[in-house]
Amino acid sequence: LWAPLLVSALLPDTGGSISPIVLCSWPVRQIPKYFRYEEFHEATDRELRATGKSYVVGAHPHGVFSFVGVCAAIASMNDAEGGFGPRLAQHVPTAAASVLKVFPLLKDVLGVFGVIPADGKTLARRLQKGSFVLYIGGMAELFRSSPRRETVFLQGRKGFIKLALKSGADVVPVYLFGNTTVLKALTWGPLADLSRKLGVSVTLFWGRFALPVPKEVRLTYARGRPLGLPHIAEPSQADIDHWHAKYCEALLQLFDRYKGTNPDYKHKTLAIE
Questions:
Q1: Vertex 25 angle, CA 22 and 29, to 5°
Q2: pTM listed for this prediction
Q3: Most CB atoms closer than 10 Å: which of 183, 193, 269, 271?
Q4: DSSP sequence for 51-72
Q5: Residue partners of 107: CB distance under 8 A and separation at least 6
């Protein structure tokens, strides 16, 4: 039982090099079918690539594990014509807390998606070369959502807007319907508190048959259009607040436009905290 953990701990980070092998394989391509996965793009992969700009793709909410994000990556990587194709992990890596790479096996799973550290310096360097996906609200969102209401932590998260303005990049809102329903988690107690502090789920979670098996719920990916941020080398607080408010408004509108496509969300509301 300890052998896989030991091997994983000793192996170096793959940096997304094995992504095409894993995400284009036949078994992995069945994952979106299990969830009856759908996606809606107001700006397609091809359109975003054609602009030559870099983007901060803001993903909401986090969940125990982003199964919607996994399905989106599989779909894009297996669509060489309209998507990013086999080099998705190099073109659009996902930013995540550095602590994730400490956990054996988890680091290998995430490595398939070309995960990069989510610190400001790394992300600023990344925007000079290309785009990245950022789960802005982080793990804390998992503990505030309910069957009637989704919650995203965004009010105090303005660093990504400042980073985009300074870099001349744009931001794109994405809502991941199903990330908080595919698994249930223990949202109280010491393990929940530890999860919030670490930014990774070490709390108890379960799905089908009370096991850590994802529920067979519908997953939906909805991507809005880029906001059209200007390039401001030294943005003022007023500049940051202005574009942050526009992002919050765009996310709320995106949620309302597409929640009806997923039966688990038709009667839900979205709160921004």
A1: 105
A2: 0.88
A3: 183
A4: H---EEEEEE---SS-HHHHHH
A5: 8, 13, 100, 101
